[in-house]
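USER:
Make up one protein:

ASSISTANT:
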Amino acid sequence: MRLIVCLPLLALVYTAAAQSVSLDVGPINYRVNELEPEEPDQAMPVTLVCDFSSRGWTIQEGDLEEVTWWKEDEDIGEHGYEWEDRGRHEVLNYNTARNFVSYGTFNNYEGRTTLETTWQGRNRLTITRANIRDNGTWVCEVELFSGTQRHRAEATIYVEVRAKPRRPTIRAFYLPETNEVMMVCNSTDGNPGPTLSWWNNTLDNPRGREQLFRNALFRNYTNTKITGYEDAGATIRFQIDEERNLQDRYSCEAQHPLLFETRLFTNITLSRPGFPEIRVSPYMENNIPVGKDIVLECEATGQPEPVYVWRRIGQMLPNGQEFFVGEHLTIYDVQTSDEGRYECTAQNAFEERSSATSIIVRRQEATEVNDIALQVGDNKTDALMNAKIIGGIVGALLALVVTIVIIVIAVHLARRGGTTPNVYKEPGQSQPVAAETTALEIEMDAPETTPKEKEAAEYAALKDSEA
């Protein structure tokens, strides 16, 4: 009885085990060159092949559910979403039920990749223009249904995107403790990393063009799995002598498969330091407010790069030290006690040169005097303009007053109904001016009589004549 019950279960297990999906991956390694921005027409697309087939059953139309392509990377979360687990970024996902392709947010694959897939087993992803972020491991994943059974399979493909390195950069440092020069050469953004070598190209070198070192004395692979680039570096360090090494010329050269026989190189010539240039930021040397922070900056030419030493002539530095080594000297909360002359010395293996500047702190009293002087200067500057404006206003007021007076006189004369009487003076007649003036004033000031008063006056005059 138990055997009869177990037989269907065993058959189901056998069927599930017999049915599977296999992936037929094309080349598992691809190599493509990253092109420069000025070479868009020379892009060669790369097609990743990941076809699928079934074992123990026949794939029917509708059995294919999803096709997903991933790019493995270790900076998960920086460019993608939380569901992008297993250290992978989703490039695209094709859902057959919706007949829709969705793209992930990593490396802008939409518009740069195309997917060709069919339910019969074709699954191919084409990258139309590869860049360095495409370098690394790719994963194709296929999911199908067979009745009630889900079948899933995945495969990995490695893509190598080769990129040209940048021209090397060189920095030379002076080590005063050992009287040595250390020169560091770096070349970035190459894949694979370039091979670096140091050369002595001094013209009068008795040994001619001399190769000092080949390959890197050290290599620094910075974020290789994240950026895809390999950053290479090489350093040399040697004792220096003024008579022997002054004006020596060295070069760092980079070799790379994409450069073929061409080499990228950078030269450096050892030289004495120039006189330092001192700047006080953010104020002028003689106009520093009390309580502010200032930075004294010192800069000089020369190879190897000079070492900068700050001193305060005749006094200790504000921090209580006798000297300070560094390109920038910061003074916090400046006070009048910080005034003085500050000297910067630039020193390398061949010579040391100094420059100095004076620091003057602006006191509070001086601030008030300057504000008053500034105000007086502004007043003097505007005096002429103000005088012109005031003169124009006074002139306009005088013209207005004269006009009003004329109007008042005209109205007064109109009310009298006549003009001012003409007082005639005989040639030989002597009349007092004061009396004439008084009579005129009385006549002008006498009020006008009404008709009844005039009639009464005429009747009184008639009575007087009869008497």
